[in-house]
Specification:
The protein is of the alpha+beta class. It has 24 helices and 29 strands. Helix 1 packs antiparallel against helix 2, helix 3 packs antiparallel against helix 4 and helix 7 runs antiparallel to helix 8.
């Protein structure tokens, strides 16, 4: 066999075997809980394939181990043995050894240094041993077989069996992704030129559309379901449960949720530490659970779901919960925090002390945990990829940890701001809202508290950081680029804290390509990377959590210091945009449906195919006059500017023209019926006035319903 052909065949063998072994971790753990023919056959096929190909490639040591495992599986398949704890443990050790051997083969192209004679002897002794009683195994065979068929089908679908799938080297995808990133930069530059040159506007819009579609396609090639990460969890739960002498099962929800491969790799360690901690510290022993009238077997639930352009992964258990007093005592004993300061923290923040280095929730140091290292790793690794960790209370009284992480790190939407003439990018996922204060409002509303500037925003005390002060920017050309003495606040969320960042000017939101900082700049804890703007200039990307940490944001607002019960009530509060349509018609819509609040010159409104439209951010956005939809008479037709609420759904935007944007409020609503008025879902008293709640229909229905009313309008 030619060397080139051997290397190609060997690589394909290692790739296929790696996928097969990843399945075996889950399948063997399930086999331990009930034998069935379909599941055994699937395990048998993987081992048989490894044995056969190893022999063809001359990997004799690998072949011998796989052969011993195959012989043991034959006894299980024939009904002579049951895969109890001892046999399953031996088979899992075989999987680990095969995995290690393949790592050696990948490096040295040979298995000459691999020796598994003791494991082979153990597998052979188990094969020849007297079987445990096989009574009753046939009774559970049929329902288990049905479950196994689902496992096998899912495994095959997961591996992409069929002509519609092709293996591609990840490095090639990374290279293509980098090239798409460069194309995005070129697109941004051309779109900026298009603003001042109408001749290339049409071409730039076409380029924008094609680049966006290409970018989305490339992003999808890197996306993988979270279930890929969960494949190894049943094995982990089994091993840790045996070590801790506990009985634990694991359940999964939302495995189809997709994440970028880089993100998926980055959260492996945090997820592993959370699961180990849940078993060691959270779930009780069978005896303790019996005493509490709980089932002897504890449960861990892994749940993944999308939320506001990010992915949340929750790890919850039905154990004894978190001992907050023990965490505080350990943190004080280790000098991580003073007793006085700990007493002033909310319960939520006291629990968060477990993320400090050296702080542990256990008095005992075990093989699994107790050294106060694991939770620090969870927090550090999650924040490194721009995510956050939150501690919740599970509905069953146990503990729940939620990781909130970005979908991808390559291309992200960001808000561009200016401070002292220098542009910076702030990731959009960290932005809660934008507030603009006139000079008079700023003078009256921004106060000093505990040596920090604060602003009361709708009843919440928000710490204010001035970007130029935190970054120590010089005041020489300080205000160049700033249009007035108004104060622009970007309200940001950093873990448990929210704060306002004061900047000189706010530009626009755009997609940016994240570039890593050079080695010399790695010490900039307030910046997570850099990007190239449309004009070729470099802008640093603000690390919101790093910025808050450097500035020492500790001022507590009401939302951060409430008890868990009050926080639960707070979840019922709605954030709303209040606006006026017609002479005195007050309306409101949920803030989470609003993408942006804009003002457009009315002479920029055009008509296309009977629909009112406006050129917006490199595309064409349909615009609806709400006054006409609601059969009201607008009183702002004569003004030069149109106030527009940009509503976004299913990736599409539409502008809602209103007469006045009044305010953004937080209210606990009592909704009253609106007598079946079309497009109004109810009425509520907001700020002491009756306000109609706008019912936003499906976006296509809104366009269709408004098309006739705006036909021919310029």
């Amino acid at each position: 066999m030619a060397r080139k052909n051997f290397d190609e065949i060997l690589k394909e063998f290692l790739d296929e075997s790696s996928e097969g072994l990843q399945q075996l971790d889950t399948l063997l753990v399930k086999l331990e809980h009930g034998r069935d023919a379909a599941r055994v056959d699937d395990i048998f096929r993987v081992i048989h394939s490894i044995k056969g190909t190893s022999g063809l490639l001359g990997l004799n040591n690998l072949e011998m181990l796989a052969h011993a495992g195959e012989d043991l599986l034959t006894e299980i398949r024939d009904g002579n043995l049951i895969a109890g704890k001892e046999i399953t443990t031996a088979l899992l050790q075989m999987v680990d050894s095969l995995r290690a051997a393949m790592g050696l083969v990948a490096e040295k192209k040979s298995d000459a240094g691999f020796n598994a004679s003791s494991l082979i002897a153990r597998l052979e002794s188990l094969k020849d041993s007297e079987s445990e009683a096989v009574l009753g195994q046939e009774e559970s065979l049929e329902p288990a077989a049905a479950e196994a068929e689902q496992d096998v089908a899912a495994a095959r679908a997961h591996n992409g069996v069929g002509a519609q799938h092709l293996r591609v080297d990840v490095s090639l995808l990374d290279k293509l992704m980098n090239m798409v990133g460069e194309l995005v930069l070129v697109r941004n530059q051309i779109m900026q030129l298009g603003h001042s040159n109408s001749a290339i506007t049409s071409s730039s819009q076409k380029l924008h559309q094609i680049t966006t579609e290409l970018q989305e396609g490339m992003m999808k090639t890197r996306m993988q379901p979270v279930s890929n990460l969960w494949d190894r969890v049943p094995r982990l739960v089994r091993d840790v449960s045996i070590t801790c002498n506990k009985q634990v099962r694991v359940e999964f929800e939302g495995g189809e949720t997709e994440l970028d491969k880089t993100i998926l790799e980055a959260i492996k360690d945090p997820l592993t530490h959370l699961i180990r901690n849940a078993i060691d510290h959270g779930i009780e022993t069978p005896a303790e659970r019996r005493a509490k009238s709980k089932p002897e077997e504890g449960t861990i639930i892994l749940r993944a779901y999308h939320d506001g352009g990010q992915v949340c992964i929750e790890v919850s258990d039905d154990g004894k919960g978190i001992d907050t007093a023990r965490i505080v005592a350990d943190a004080v004993d280790k000098g991580s925090i003073s007793a006085d300061r700990a007493a002033r923290l909310s319960e939520r923040e006291q629990k968060a002390l477990m993320f400090l280095p050296g702080v542990s929730t256990s008095d005992d140091i075990t093989k699994v945990s107790g050294r106060g290292v694991g939770m620090d790793v969870v927090k550090t690794n999650t924040e490194r990829i721009g995510g956050t960790v939150d501690i919740l209370t599970a509905s069953n009284g146990g503990a729940c940890f939620r990781l909130t992480i970005p979908l991808t790190l390559a291309i992200i939407p960001a808000l561009v701001v200016v401070s002292r003439g220098i542009r910076y990018a702030i990731p959009q996922v960290n932005i809660l809202e934008l507030v603009r204060l006139s000079a008079d409002q700023a003078a009256a509303g921004i106060e000093e508290a505990r040596g920090c500037s604060v602003y009361r925003l709708r009843g919440r005390l928000i710490p204010i950081l001035y970007l130029h002060e935190v970054l120590r920017l010089k005041d020489g050309d300080a205000r160049r680029g700033q249009q007035s003495d108004d104060v622009n606040l970007v309200i940001l969320q950093a873990g448990l804290h929210s704060f306002g960042l004061a900047v000189d000017d706010i530009n626009d939101t755009e997609e940016i390509v994240v570039k890593p900082l050079a080695r010399q700049l790695k010490g900039l804890t307030v910046c997570s990377g850099a990007t190239i703007m449309g004009d070729g200039a470099v802008a640093l990307i603000i690390d919101v959590i790093g910025l808050a940490r450097r500035a020492g944001v500790e001022v507590q607002n009401e939302a951060q210091s409430r008890t868990a019960a009050a926080a639960e009530q707070d979840a019922k509060i709605e954030r709303l945009v209040i606006f006026r349509v017609g002479k005195d018609q007050r309306l409101a819509m949920p803030l989470h449906l609003v993408a942006r609040l804009e003002e457009f010159p009315r002479n920029k409104l055009e008509t296309s195919a009977g629909q009112l439209v406006v050129q917006y951010r490199g595309g064409v956005m349909p615009v609806v006059k709400l006054a006409r939809v609601l059969n009201l008479e607008s009183d702002s037709e004569g003004s030069d500017l149109a106030q527009v609420i940009v509503y976004e759904k299913q990736g599409k935007s539409v502008g809602l023209i209103v007469d006045e944007i009044v305010d953004i409020v937080e209210e606990r609503l009592t909704v009253h019926e609106a007598d079946f008025q079309k497009n109004i879902r109810g009425r509520a008293v907001i700020q002491g006035r009756v306000t109609d709640l706008l019912e936003i229909p499906h976006i296509s229905e809104l366009w269709t319903g408004a098309a006739e009313t705006v036909r021919g309008v310029n």
